[in-house]
Amino acid sequence: MPTPLGNLRDITLRALDVLRDCALVVAEDTRVARRLLGAHAIAGKRILGYREQNAARVTPAILARAKRELVAVTTDAGMPGLSDPGRELLGAARAAGIEVEVLPGPAAFICAAVLSGFPLEGLVFGGFLPRASEARARALQSALETGTAHAWYESPQRIVASLEVLAKLDPAATVLIARELTKVHEQQILGTPAQALAALERPVRGEITLVLGPRDAGAARRNGGDLGAAIEAALDAGLSVAAAAKMLARERDENRSELYARVVERKRDRSGKRPRGS
Predict the structure, then answer these.
(1) Residue 132 DSSP one-character state
(2) At what angle do helices 227-236 and 159-169 cross, to 10 degrees?
(3) This prediction's pTM
(4) Which of 15, 225, 234, 258 could lock onto 244 through a cystine, CB 3.0 to 4.6 A?
(5) % of the chain with per-residue pLDDT over 90
(6) Which residue, among 92, 88, 102, has the nearest Cα to 66 in the 3D structure?
(7) How many CB atoms lie within 10 A of CB 131?
(8) 108-163+173-212 belongs to which homologous superfamily?
């Protein structure tokens, strides 16, 4: 069952019924669960911590309890199993023949996507952006090419780097940064990657959702007449020679081998030495 993103009143009446009626609350963080229960005057509940580090150890006990009593699975904020613990437990319960029901409720990326005002047909949720710089650049470039809106969760330690990569790949892109949704220090930023970087409070703290607006499917080709600039942007974003050539070939519908040679040449010019290639 989902739990509030921040404001503890953002919980459904049905979710409160389940919390009152259940025999066990399974929680990502027991302290967060206690605060939620306390805010709604629900006392005397047994709470069991469930997270990646102890999942294998506690899953059998949870399943044994769920076979005979009602068990409520929660997360710190939002929907369990959606970039939070819970997916494996759900699968284990189904395998054990235990009936599973999901209650509707808050999900940060849905709230942020609606806040953006972007067309949301074909909206893609990508979980957390990759940690590695090249993989992150590939994910953002791929999203730019699709022509649909994308949403990700991002850590405060990496959001600046992600926006910097977007600014290099497409300075005209439109993004929404939703930070600390429904909380006291909520911040919403709508604009280009550079504008978002300028407006983002520092040091960056809290839970962050990044929504990238859809780009017109023909924009890359119309704006990509300067191949040299496109190669520079791809290299500046941290893509390897092979990844840059592949991306440019797909985006521009040109020969990948020829583009590879152009990227090799440009990278050699930039570094003064022959690149490693892939």
Answers:
(1) S
(2) 170
(3) 0.78
(4) 234
(5) 74
(6) 92
(7) 11
(8) Tetrapyrrole methylase, C-terminal domain (3.30.950.10)
